[in-house]
Amino acid sequence: MDFEAVIGLEVHAQLLTKSKIFCTCSTEFGAAPNSHVCPVCCGMPGTLPVLNKRVVDFAIKLALATNARINPVSVFARKNYFYPDLPKGYQISQYELPLAEGGYIEIEVNGSKKKIGLVRIHMEEDAGKLIHDETRPVSYVDLNRTGVPLLEIVSEPDMRSPEEAVAYLKKLRSILRYLEICDGNMEEGSLRCDANISVRPKGSDTFGTKVELKNMNSFKHVQKALEYEIKRQIALILDGKEVVQETRLFDVSRGITQSMRGKEEAHDYRYFPDPDLVPIEITESWIEEIAETLPELPDAKKERFIKEYNLPEYDAEIITSSRKLAEFYEACVKAFPKPKLVSNWIMTEVLRELNKEGKEIDETALTPENFVKLLKLLDEGVISSPVAKKIFPEVYKGADPQKIVEEKGLKQESDEAALEAICQKILEANPKEVEKYRQGKKNVIGFFVGQVMRETKGKANPKVVNQILTRLLEQ
Ligand code: ADP
Ligand code: ZN
Ligand code: MG
Asked: Which residues contact 335 (CB under 8 A, 6 or more apart)?
């Protein structure tokens, strides 16, 4: 029997507001434990929450960017549960009337586009953090995170593979970053993903029993956990057993999922509208005001890059996946209108360095000015491609390529007479290879070019070397 997976994601995005959602405490990450707390976020009796308007602004932004319907009236609700990191004994969230419903995010996997529907986008407060002492049977609670604003984005069960789930998550993160409402850092927990997954026989039109997966703090973990869970569920069914509806944790070191607890139902939380907060009315003019602040979004930017710069879809996809990288690219192309050359270099040398350090382009010392200077030196034949690649790491660290080339004497050797002498020498030193060439193994020329490059420390103009070698060998 052939099976297919059905996946729906619940994503929590921590918002980049300066203060918390219902009080004026700072949201800053990494402060001393319990230094960003007040009676409101500590849940003291008699205190009252006051909504931070910026949170609603940010939520409207995301709703607009995902084509969701914004409810003219939405309501905060209390989600009741007991846990030591939740001082009030309930979390303020939204339930029956969320901020927005519907909408979609478009993804592309293996060249085919697909819209993943959204169920809802709602606002809520984060809980605190428990810190467990490794050496003693003691746990501490840090309430700095209590009341930090979150958006929860719930998708329809529209994804059919781990690849689609990861593509959705990446696109959602890209949109959040473009909007500058969440930094998208999964390791630090500012973007968290719970994945719901079930399997069913291919062609079936009913869903199987789903399992909720938690504790995945990278794209790789999401992929791995889903792959594991698909295999586990299929094996159960083929064995005549049933999938149990439950919450499972991904064990990173073992690459498996393990049962954590039975799944709660909505009625376990005894939701009811929060009597301390008035319903939120969102007017058309408020929405219009926010709409005017929306930047060009990743999909639109990608389409424009393909048209305007004639970039292949693949290049455009990668370069527009980050707003900062796309802006860097455009600044370069403006100063040096060779879009494909700029793109090639960004996709290889630049991204290699960025990935190595896990940085965004604006967190580095690489400037469009220096980068364009380097590409011009290459394009005008002043330096060879191997030299350009060799000095790139220094340029990346902020050095002026022109200066490096002058100080180190790296200008390309294009002087025919000088190069011919070196070619001659290389041919004389390798008579066997010359023989091979003359017997028809023309690709030996690559070997000779390599030798000349070595001899000149990469400074020889490869085009000129090729011409000279061909002439000498064909004599
Ligand atoms: P619950 O009431 O159990 O929380 P919801 O209907 O609210 O379930 O859905 C929660 C998430 O689970 C959504 O992202 C939804 O797309 C996904 N989901 C729902 N049913 C399934 C299923 N059978 N298989 C996989 N995912 C599902
Ligand atoms: Zn507070
Ligand atoms: Mg639910």
From this structure: 368, 369, 372
